[in-house]
Amino acid sequence: MFTVTPAIVLAGGWEAAFYTFGAAAIFWFPFWAASSFEVVSDSSAGGMYGTEGGAKVGVVDEWLALVKTREVKAICVAQFAQSWGGYGLLSWLPTYFEEALGVPLGDLPAFTVLPYFIQGIVGVASGIVADRWLREGRFDVKFIRRAFQTAGMVGPAACLTGAAILGGAGATETNVFAAAVLVDVGLALSALTLAGVSVSHLDVAPRHAGLVFATGNTCATIAGVIAVPLSGFVLEATGQSWSTVFGIIAVLYVVGAAYWWACVGDEPVPEDSL
Questions:
Q1: Does any domain span residue 49?
Q2: What are the DSSP E strand ranges found in 6-139?
Q3: pLDDT tens track for 20-47
Q4: Close Cβ partners of 3 (under 8 Å, ≥ 6 residues apart)
Q5: Successive 10-residue mean pLDDT values, the chain, 274 residues
Q6: 103 and 189 share one domain
Q7: Residue 101 CA to chain centroid, in angstroms?
């Protein structure tokens, strides 16, 4: 997507990009639907309920009990904070390179694709390293979740701060290169969270991992819904102050990492047994 979008925009305008990816989604939907929907029989419906004192506990009651725990709150806060930056960068990174650093639209793929390619490599590597450390007993689960998530949020915060400073210093060749490197490193480090919050729901609520994962993802999506338009408003209100936009992301990263470090869990919460 990041590779072809600039070419589509250059050839047919920004509307063409929306039409192209919208049509691709419509084309793909029937194939996805045919392989994804499953009819749940009455005999298996009990899997949606737990029991407490012989009485059925509905999925809503289970969810309410889980979201009140500090461990699940930590997942929600961390996913909200990191997705604020993730969605914000996903939407505004091309604009930053084009307007703040003077990179031509046709050259954007070289700057916007590489970070996500590196991110994929780091994400796979983080899982391999975390699993090895657990198997070898080097660190316990809580330390690994803390370390990877904190590095995956504080690291990008530092990199974005540096990129914002360079953006304000002028679009020299050196600044453009250095800012690109910082963004690449920041996005790569963000993939470390795949060994943090992305698997924490299995630690704290293995019986309701899907429910907790969905709750965290909802918080992440809400962050994206707010972050993208708010970043645009901030840019307009401050006269294209990228340091302000990146500063907001950096602060949320640090706050989210601090809350995560204090509240992350490493074993099933009692509410998971409902």
A1: no
A2: 50-52, 55-57
A3: 988 999 998 888 777 765 554 444 444 4
A4: 109, 113
A5: 66 82 90 66 46 57 89 95 89 80 73 79 93 93 95 93 74 76 87 93 91 93 93 90 88 95 91 77
A6: yes
A7: 25
Tally of domains in the chain: 2
Residues contacting residue 78 through CB under 8 Å, at least 6 positions apart = 149, 153, 193, 196, 197, 216, 256, 257, 259, 260
Instruction: Please indicate, yes or no, if residue 199 is contained in any of the structural domains.
Output: yes
**Residue pointed to by tokens 């650093």:** 101
Question: Distance between the two ends of the chain, CA-based, in angstroms?
Answer: 43
Integer-rounded Cα radius of gyration of the chain: 21
Q: What is the pTM of this model?
A: 0.78
Give the Cα separation of 136 and 142 in Å (integer). 15
Handedness of CA 129, 130, 133, 135 (dihedral sign): negative
The first and second tokens of residue 242, run together, are 């990228």
